[in-house]
Structure formats: structure tokens, C-alpha cells
Amino acid sequence: MSRWKAQRPVAVQGTPGQASEQEPQVSGPDQRKSGRRGSAKQVGGVGMLLHHVDDFGLTDDQIHQLNKLMVDFELEKVDLQAALQKAKIIWRSLVRDVDANEADVMNAIDNLSQAEANLRKMRYNHLKAARGVLEPGQRNNLRTFHLKQSQEKAAAGGGGGGGQRRAS
After folding, report:
1. Closest by CA position to 57, among listed 130, 129, 135
2. Alpha-carbon distance 131 to 129, whole Å?
3. Largest CB tally within 10 Å, which of 30, 52, 71, 75?
4. Contacts of 145 (CB under 8 A, 6+ apart)
């Protein structure tokens, strides 16, 4: 097995010699079709609302507000992702160091957890701000839209729960 394949997640590797019955994992902005929804990315944020302008009947003013929010949000996101990457690098370097002070390692773990939490909080705050631009009727349309997508995903057999395993 190549070194590269050994480092790939099992969900992507599959089982050698067997054809995969599962749909491959999808990363990036269009995870809706893969059934993966592990974060707040696909539940009604700025990008999703702007992608479905006609579905929600957004006005030009709302589109302008969302575009303005998007720029501010992207800048904040980049800063928080950089802080998370820095925390990961520091933590990894301390874990590799046999002589690292335990208090420093514990502090690095706390910093890493805080950076991850800050990123999740930012995503939630952005989600709420994007939804705040909507009028009450549009928010109801958002609920209906998500329910419809969930039903379509279930009807198509998609889901993030994984596939059935065969007995060997």
C-alpha cells in the first residue's frame, strides 16, 4: 500500500478488491448531494441563501446586505482558521517533544479546543446574522426548504450514517 493511501481516511480508501457500494465522500461547497451535513455550513448561511435567491424571494436590498455580510464573514473566518492552524501546530510540536512540560501540553490542548470552539461560534453567529436579513415569511420558507431537502435526501437513499457492512 502506498504511503499516500495509508494516510487517507478509511471512508475514502474503501476496501481493497471490493467495489464500493457507497457514494464517495464529497468535500467542498456541494456536500448536499452526498448526505454529509456535519456542520453549520449547509443549513442556511449567507452562501446558501445567495445560491437560492429565487427560492426565497430575496429583494435586491437583502442580496446587497448578504453580499456585504459575506465579505466581513470571510475575513473573520480566515482569521479564526489561522488561529486554529497555529494552535494545531503548537500542540503537535509539543506532543512530539519527549521532554515537553506537561503544563505546556495541557495549555496547548486548551488553546486548540478554544480555537475550535471560536470557529463554531463564529459559524453560528454568521448563520443567525444571515437569517436575520430574512423576513418572517422567508424564514418559514427556509424551514420548508430544509425539510424538503431532507425528504429528498431520504427518498434518494442518501444519508450520513454510512452503508451496510458485509460479513466476511
Report:
1. 135
2. 5
3. 52
4. 52, 55, 56
Q: What does the longest C-alpha to C-alpha distance in the chain come to?
A: 60
pLDDT (tens, 9 = 90+) of the chain, 168 residues, equals: 444 444 444 444 444 444 444 444 444 444 444 444 444 445 668 888 888 888 888 899 999 999 999 999 999 999 999 999 999 999 999 999 999 999 999 999 999 999 999 999 999 999 999 989 989 888 888 888 888 888 888 888 765 555 454 454
- List the domain boundaries for the chain: 75-134
CA 116, CA 110: separation in Å to the nearest integer?
10
pTM greater than the 0.85 cutoff = no
